[in-house]
Amino acid sequence: MQLLQVTTLLLMLLLLILLCPEHSASEIECERWADLDSGVFQKEGQIILAGYFPIHSQDVPQELSFESAPGKTRCKGFNLRAFRWSQAMIYFIEEINRNPNLLPNITLGYRLYDTCWLVALSMRSALSAVSQPLKRNSTGACSSPSIPVIIGDSGSSLTIAISRLLNLFRVPLVSYFASCACLSDRKNFPYFFRTVPSDSYQASALARLIKHFGWTWVGAMGADDAYGRTALEMFSAEVTRLGMCLAFRAIIPKVPTQQQLQELVQIIRDSTARVLVAVATEEDMQPLIEEMIRQNVTGRQWVASEAWVTSTLFSTIYPSLSGTIGFAIRRADIPGLKTFLQNLQPLAEPYNPSAIEFWETQFQCSFNKDLPLSMGDPVQFNRTCTGQERIEDTETIYNDVSQLRVTYNLHKAVYAVAHALHSLLMCQKEGGNSDKQQQCPDILNLQPWQVIQYLKEVNFTNMFGDTVNFDEYGDPAGSYDIINWHKGEEGRPLEFATVGRFDSSLPTEQQLVIHQDKLMWHAGSKEVPVSVCSASCLPGYRKATRKGEPVCCYDCVPCAEGTISNSIDQSECTFCPEDLWSNPQRNSCVEKQIEFLSYTEGFGMALAATAILGVVATVTVATIFLRHRDTPLVRANNSELSFLLLLSLTFCFLCALTFLGQPSRWACPLRRTAFGLTFALCLSCLLSKTLVVLMAFRATLPGDNTARWFRPPQQRMGVFLCSALQCAICVAWLTTAPPYPVKNNWLYRDRIILECHLGSVALFCCVLGYIGCLAVFCFILAFLARKLPGNFNEAKFITFSMLIFCAVWIAYIPAYVSSPGKFTVAVEIFAILASSFGVLLCIFAPKCYIIIFMPEKNTKKYLMSQKVSR
């Protein structure tokens, strides 16, 4: 890098030597250097400021023979805006010279260069600035008083070129319109400052503007220069960061051919993007706009960069661009400037070549005098200018001061340099013989590098209330107005309406402000244009990116069950909390349906009715037995145990009702213990009955005294002991790990099953196991006694009842395991009711039938006859 700088410096010095006239050292003393700056307008002063302006937009091609020196560079395309900028700089410098509080007793001069928007001419102007005419200084020696600061250039590409050259001489450059973010690189541009915001701010602001209006699919174009390419790159990165996409990226050639324009317009026509972002200058955009109008490509929403968003040319001749929106640098109303511009005197000395060309072009006349020529190609008009023509009678960009934006940046630049020089002057005037005073530069013999530190420290508030300073990169804060092009009245040009602002110095949420009610879009519409690759996904859907396409092109897929999206364009559906579930629209979570076997549903009502029917049947049987308790049939079947059995069956039927309804802390223990105790009591009664029947017939054998152990007190004791053992197990269960209600979230995802957890599975198995043991033991004994005499024998009925009981509960186990949710409880209730009805019908139905329908058999004689016959 250092070698490159040294090489460049040697080349520049060689160029300067070649440009100097060939004289001896004594002859060249204090003579003027070769003319590098014809057409420059200047005014002498104690300190000279240089200003670069593209007063012409392009050069006139000339043939190069390489046999003689090329002729003077000629330019064409007189730029009224740039000429106004140059005149404004004169006005600002004269204003400073009149101000007694700023640079007192110091007169500023100026040298204004026309760079013709050419890099070569800008470089030539930079060389001119660092090689001023030789003068004798206070010691009598010849020296070249350098220009301490250069103000310019307007274009980023031009500024980059001259800044690299001026770095070799440590000359600070303050630009009023070069916004390329690349110029913030202090390693490559250590002496560069500017009053226009960096494009890094504009790229961020443009992307946020696109995001604000919901334009996720846009086309982007940039000029083929440092300004356009760098800004386009930064804008693309910012758009991607904010989750949006570019439909296409295109470069606008500086001098486009017709084919290039047609290809570019074809890209715009074929793209589905309806919003176009263009980062380019007015000169770059004009051929493209004209080609689009020629091909009748309409219906596009333009988003303009600050370089052309306030283009008076476009607003005047292209009404189809109405609705264009973009960021413009801040404007100001500068008092006295319009009067100064209108008081321009083309023949006043010193002659201003550009003012003369402006006058001739504006009024279509010629002075026909031998006057200094500007950079423009001479044009002869038939009419003679008098110099008395009135500018105020014309309406042009030159005297239109309604949109002073670049001019305001120029105002900041000139005053920033003035304040830096003022600080340097104040350093000199400090009293005392201090070291600081000795270090202060001599303002009348100033070197450019001595101003740099004072420029870095510039910080003042101008007459418009804006703070002017530079950050560590030489940049100001990013501050823009948002401009919207409104349709003017019939025959009037488009109007620039300020509809918001962007200020990077504010907190993030306050930086972008847009007044929606002031916006007007293409063709006067108030509805925001739509520019998306895919329509927004509504709540309840998620975005599914299409393979091989940008993220903005997607399909809308409904959210799965249990997930929701409650805003538009969600990339992923979110899961509902554990106790919630998605609604049918999948846009909100609602409480899961609580499910349990309820009395109010049909199935629950049927089971409850069956249980109540069982209770009624049992009570009916008990009533029949009670009314016929003195009959032989009732007495022969141990009426006490029968009534106790009927009571236990009643409890069994009632126990089934506890399984219905919502599980609770009292219902869960009740249903389990009630089930265990009632069935233990029922089976204990059956076991006692079986033993009584069996022992009764064994007691008929001679010498058998077994019957005395099965009298009623012993029977009651047996029933009590069998039930007490079950009761002990239940007490242990309730005190250690009782059943409790739980919410079953794992069986079904869309609903919650309320059920009773067993608490202790081992103790529950003990309860069931004990009931099973009683049933099996009772079945075995009844089976052994099944062939005893029928009229006295209940064993065969107990056998059938136990067979049904065991079959029901054996079938219950797989049915219980495989039944989901509330049907598990239903299976359990069914098993309770089936086994209870089995016992009731098998044991008591035959007896009730005899008692009611065959009373003749319910006699002692009949029973004894049956015994004798057997």
Describe this structure in words.
Residues 603-867 form the G-protein coupled receptors family 3 profile domain. Keywords: Cell membrane, G-protein coupled receptor, Glycoprotein, Membrane, Receptor, Signal, Transducer, Transmembrane, Transmembrane helix. One of its GO terms (cellular component) is plasma membrane. Helices cover 43% and strands 15% of the residues. It has 870 residues and is α/β, with parallel strands linked by helices. The strands form 9 sheets. The chain has an 8-stranded mixed β-sheet with strand order 12-11-13-14-15-18-19-20, with helices on both faces. The protein starts with a helix and ends with a helix.
Task: Please outline the helices and strands.
Layout: H1 2-19, E1 41-43, E2 47-53, E3 56-59, E4 75-78, H2 80-98, E5 108-114, H3 119-129, E6 135-136, E7 142-143, E8 149-151, H4 156-167, E9 173-175, E10 192-194, H5 199-212, E11 217-223, H6 226-241, E12 245-252, H7 258-270, E13 275-279, H8 282-294, E14 301-304, H9 312-317, E15 325-329, H10 337-342, H11 353-363, H12 406-429, H13 435-439, H14 452-456, E16 459-461, E17 467-469, E18 479-486, E19 495-503, H15 508-511, E20 512-514, E21 541-545, E22 554-558, E23 563-564, E24 574-575, E25 580-582, E26 589-591, E27 593-595, H16 602-627, H17 632-636, H18 639-657, H19 667-698, H20 712-736, E28 740-744, E29 751-757, H21 761-784, H22 795-818, H23 822-853, H24 860-869
